[in-house]
Amino acid sequence: MTNYLNKPYGHSTVRDALDSIYHGKCAYCESIMEPASSGQVEHYRPKKNLIDDKAHPGYYWLAYEWTNLLLSCARCNGKKSNKFPISGKRIPGPGAADTDRLCKSEYLKAEQPCLLNPELDDPREYLRFNFAGELSARDDHIRGRQTIDLCDLNRDDLISARKEAKDWFQRMLEKYLEKVLSKPVEELRNSEACGKLVDDFLGPLFEFQEERTGAAEEYSAYHTYIMDNFERVMLPEFPEGDARKLVRLAYRRFRNSRP
Ligand SMILES: [Zn+2]
Hints:
Layout: H1 12-21, E1 40-43, E2 69-72, H2 74-80, H3 106-109, E3 127-129, E4 135-137, H4 142-151, H5 156-181, H6 185-189, H7 191-201, H8 203-211, H9 220-228, H10 230-233, H11 242-257
Antiparallel strand pairs: 1-2, 3-4
The protein binds zinc ion.
């Protein structure tokens, strides 16, 4: 076997390039890594010691393949380890064509990996969050379930961090909602005046929340989920009546104002 394990793939130039692509976030759990140098160069397909198939040599020919490298935190990387379950047929070795080494190649995709590939798969198709920051598989999809298990994406600290980010948004909405509710009833009953009130007081909070859906933001997938599903997952947290109506109005006006 070639000596491919002297770790040039872990060279700082490789890690720095991945750090830039992933905005310093773990490709699996979206935690920003502190210090930045704690990010690890992770092989999507393990380069050796495949846990799921002891007779397999591991994907040694992909040890230096750029499309097989991701940036991962130590927690996700350690948990995932050399596991790579598949639903299709295990590929025994390199393919005949140069392009067969690419993650997006039909040759590799035929394995039907259970682990979602952060560069190829849209997590929204397979995963969903709840109000408490927990992940689950959308429609109980096997790839969603296995990815959560493989990287332990519902570990306590991750759930807490996601929930805290959401709680802050909710607290701010409640705080500024009070200011709107303290206005004279005539203003709240006048649709034009009311629209301006929620735009002025609550609009900036939705703007801020939308900024947190940016790719460089920690837990951006969760923030995106909150914004896209606001009426279902967050609105019920506000008391029925004027409070809920105003927050709904603010959200809809904000969304309608976006291109
Ligand atoms: Zn991670």
